[in-house]
Target: Arc family DNA binding domain-containing protein
Amino acid sequence: MKPEKAQNSTENKSKKSFVIRIDESTYKLLEKWAGDEFRSVNGQIEYLLHQKLMESGRKKKE
Model:
């Protein structure tokens, strides 16, 4: 039997992959910020985008 992997609600949703090009200094700042908040850079970008979508009223609370 294979061990089951725990899934949270964000893993249950399908995610779209895409390439993002940012300058090295911006990436370094994001990397530091993500580390400070115990997230990956990808997770930090997702978090920031989610926050701005909520603030702008473009996304409703789940």
In short: Residues 31 and 50 are 18 Å apart (CA to CA). The mean pLDDT is 87. Helices lie at 9-12, 24-36, 41-55.
